[in-house]
Amino acid sequence: MRGPTPARWAAGATAMALAATGCGGVGSAGGNGGAVLSSSWGDPQNPLEPANTNEVQGGKVLDMIFRGLKKYDPRTGKAQDWLARSIETRDSRNFTVRIKRGWTFSNGEKVTARSFVDAWNYGASLRNNQKNAYFFGYIEGYDKVHPDSGAQSADTLSGLKVLDDHTFTVRLNQKFSGFPDTLGYAAFAPLPRAFFTDHAAWVRRPVGNGPYTIESYTKGSQMYLRKWDGYPGPDKARNDGVTLLVYTDSNTAYTDLLAGNLDLVDDIPAAQLKNVKGDLGDRYINTPAGIIQTLAFPYYDKAWDKPGSAKVRTGLSMAINRRQITQTIFRKTRTPATDWTSPVLGTDGGFKAGLCGRACDYDPARAKKLIEEGGGIPGGRLTITYNADTGSHRQWIDAVCNSINNALGDDRACVGNPVGTFADFRNQLGQHKMTGPFRAGWQMDYPLIQNFLQPLYYTGASSNDGKWSDKEFDRLVDRANAETDTAKAIAGFQQAEKVVRDNMAAIPLWYQNGNAGYSERLSHVALNPFSVPVYNEIKVG
Fold this sequence. Notes:
The chain is 27% helix and 19% strand.
């Protein structure tokens, strides 16, 4: 979240490659001996710098090797103080942060107030080109270290001040009552001095302060994370390590699980949902998560940002039979979306069932009429781009296209456009190469309604891949952020969400459950509200 400053993308970032050390085989003890579990995974898009990772696969690792001021409860999602002893404010603009003593990084360095301030300054700096720079945008001085245009005129955020080893202050450029609850997000993690003094070495082998350390990584193959015995936190790992194995096909991962070659799969392929309960019994997990699947549009392509386009987008939304698709393909792991957030938030947290109204109802006759009134599909054919390596996306993209084709009475009106890997897909999005709608699934960073709206739809926001912009939406978000009364802030965000609805900025498809399956070797397996395995709680044997 931030003020109106555009995020900048690091195209073609250098890939992290750790020297592979003796890491054991699948389901084996791993390089250090003992009870190590194996889990399916995908290569992260970028090196694992906290401020440069904004996708799920890299996020899984950051959640294992870092701990921040806050931590989200793995069951409720509630933000809890972790390294923070206290975060105090009288005006929702000036905050005093006191951190706990006794915390260190895995290389022995102490975690101090400067560990946070230096990390945040690095993440915000324009010259460092971090994808998550946006998250520091509410801190005073961001406009100087990350200007809209031209070179930065300051090296550090004026709103950050270190008072002593365990105290620092934060001054925001406007009131933001929800600011403390955002601080469990990985972008706000502390960094050791080693990150700055020998950055290249740190990138090859990241050092954090979480329950695990990275032992080895072979890109395209696997990463081995070892339990850190010296971890000072209360959530110590209950296993000896985790081997993350790269799969480009979730069906292969599932087959390996059944064959005893893999311990944990956190993405059950749609084709196996009819069999999974029989295959795994109680070792199958299906639980609500803060995830919504949408179709986004490239507003940088004038064909999608001209008078009448909102009618076309709304018509496309009404041409999609969400209920039929979720029932036939996803079998109780998806629920048709009727707003742009998630039921995980609850009504008190901002979820509002039915906010989308008729625009999310299947109505093929009305859909066809609206698309025609809006000038028709640009170019005469709808091409939906998606990554083909994970998530069973091909099945549902084909189903969405079939639904649209049936509504329009044209078998060639809509086609899917697969991109080989998630990393390639993200790079194409970052380079603004889309000419039609694209898959835009969103997994919450933290459990606030703000997180489902501002990062995706605010002008220049870090995950606003389609570059949608609306001054009224931005104004309402700014006003909601400044509201110190929680209920009034949530109501303000819902007003902003109605602007998204009225413009059909993105088409909401369905809310997604987290689902997973695991081997008989494991116990105490659970997914958190972000649909990520709680690796540190898993027991082996």
